[in-house]
Amino acid sequence: MVAQNLVFFFCCFFFISVFSEEHGVEGLGRGDKRLFVFGDSYADTGNNRIALASSWKFPYGITFPGKPAGRFSDGRVSTDFIAGYLGMKTPIPYRWRKQLAGRVKYGLNFAYGGTGVFDTSASYPNMTTQIHFLQQLINDSVYNKRGLKASLAFVSASGNDYANYIAMNGSTAGFPAFISSVVRQLTVSLRRIHGLGVGKIAVGSLPPLGCLPANTAQTSFQRCDPTQNALVDLHNLLLLQAVTNLNNQTNSTSFFILDFHGAFSTVLNQTQPHQGSPKFEKPLQACCMGVSAAFSCGSVDENGVKKYTLCSNPKSKFFWDTLHPTQEGWRAAFSTPAFQNSFNQLFQN
């Protein structure tokens, strides 16, 4: 029992130290706004379990907070930057809501690395389940209608459903019909969040998945995969139509799209830096990569020998691993006109 108490104390101390370091840009007069986050590893700040996730292994987190802390990057991810734009502290992961109850007032992050709109694994709570978590907290009077109306939900759906489809089917055959089903279910999720009383719901457009290092490796990180990017375009077209319809059906401007596709494309295609953004070296290549297809960033063998390579400076790379941006990559994407123009809709309506 003593040993268990010590482990519990250590875990609580560790997470308090991690989360106390996270701050948004304070003093922007956003009132009692809260941020609720749903989705996947592009937004997860620590929900995925330590034993299962690479995000809890070195060298993840080496830029921030200086150690692995559950983010799928060397540092901050999209949730952190969005919280900063809102003038808020980053909402804590849902799984630590009891240990860090004082932080629940800022909202919660329900996002879970590896999850999708549909089931992608028996171990991962899909988006429907994540929204159910918020529903339960509302039922328990943790949040009230006034607080929800003044709040923002950020929804990240960055391609796990599609990766799972290819893994299960071995090809992209039948993909257009599946894309339609994903967007339909995503629309159901957006409508449900709105029905719970959240005032604004922002959903990220799908980034150019064909440009991820996992897909550019076959061309030695020189070219994006045009077939996958064409399918991404279909997803984003259907998503735009869905969000437009939701606003019309609710007679509101509650729903809007954060242009991650435009932001990523701007940075990856730039020939010159813009607005202080760096020009990334080999932008289609990751900083941290497995030594072969059998290994990934953070992998070690039975003797603890590293089975990955790590670049000398994560700030020089847009991508951290074969799927996720570095902190500097996220910073550059969020500084683009594509992102800022879409995010400004929150304050214009």
UniProtKB/TrEMBL annotation:
Database matches in InterPro entries: GDSL, SGNH_hydro_sf
Claim: Phosphoprotein is one of the keywords in the record: no
Gene3D superfamilies hit by this protein: SGNH hydrolase
Keywords attached to this entry: Hydrolase, Lipid degradation, Lipid metabolism, Signal
An example molecular function term from Gene Ontology annotations: hydrolase activity, acting on ester bonds
Pfam families: Lipase_GDSL
GO biological process entries: lipid catabolic process
Signal peptide start and end residues: 1-20
Keyword Hydrolase included in the entry's annotation: yes
PANTHER family linked: GDSL ESTERASE_LIPASE, OSJNBB0059K02.9 PROTEIN
Family: Belongs to the 'GDSL' lipolytic enzyme family.
Protein name per Swiss-Prot or TrEMBL: GDSL esterase/lipase
Organism expressing this protein natively: Hibiscus syriacus
